[in-house]
Automatic annotation (TrEMBL):
This is ROK family protein. InterPro entries: ATPase_NBD (IPR043129), ROK (IPR000600), ROK_cs (IPR049874). SUPFAM superfamilies: Actin-like ATPase domain. Signal peptide: none annotated. Belongs to the ROK (NagC/XylR) family. It comes from the Bacteria. Pfam families: ROK. It comes from Streptomyces aquilus. The lineage of its organism: Bacteria, Bacillati, Actinomycetota, Actinomycetes, Kitasatosporales.
Amino acid sequence: MHTDLVAALDIGGTKIAGALVDDRGHILVRAQRATPAQEDGETVMRAVEEVLGELTVSPLWESASALGIGSAGPVDASAGTVSPVNVPGWRDYPLVRRVRAATGGLPVELIGDGVAITAAEHWQGAARGHDNALCMVVSTGVGGGLVLGGRLHPGPTGNAGHIGHISVDMDGDPCACGSRGCVERIASGPNIARRAYENGWRPGPDGDTSAAAVAAAARAGDPIAVASFERAAQALAAGIAATATLVEIDIAVIGGGVGKAGEVLLTPLRKALTDYATLSFVQRLAVVPAQMGTDAGLVGAAAAALAKGADKAPV
């Protein structure tokens, strides 16, 4: 019945989600485990195998033609390995080989989580109908992915579009990646909150010091909270404009937890973009919120598997 069916894994520092997905992007079967992120690599792999085990007992499993993995990175699709920053037990971990073994040799396609979300937004979400797009995940970190010429562009290792580590402030703070003044160092949720706190913002009675709490304060007109989001918006605008100038995208999609701040982020971002995206061919660049929500990683991993399996992109 379901001839074009694929399996998908979405692997992050908090959860490992799995699904069987049809060729229209509908999730038919789900499984999930918490990521034992601080355990050794084999313990993390056992959680992946448990998720796969739940999928393989479904009667639909025999129709699955391939499996797509969207993983926290860095990933190396050319080697089939992953080294997620927030899963220290996995360094150059042979995830593709292990997943293939656990699924009886199913073809496996590995991409970074930012690329997976991009695939989902282009196939089913906010970038649908756009041939050249940048999709960003602004959360604990800042990731992203590219669609160029109507096709997902993961690059040789599966990390292309990683806008979080474009430097937008040459004399800026050192970033965990080893560079300085990266988009992520300025625009990620923890950095928005840190900057607001350092400049005198204080949480309410609940003690919530998250970027969401800073966003709520900014919505209520707190000038320090507003300024922290404006600085984040400026960094994002500079990174988006650089990307647009380099590869001619016509839409930037903003997702992730910080993206949910809405106009507190998007209004200053669109304004700052007019300062950076000044050349004629980038002036019509649209900035829109993501639409796919929490299933984006799974749907995007499925899109990559479908594209590989059919050798033609649904994305």
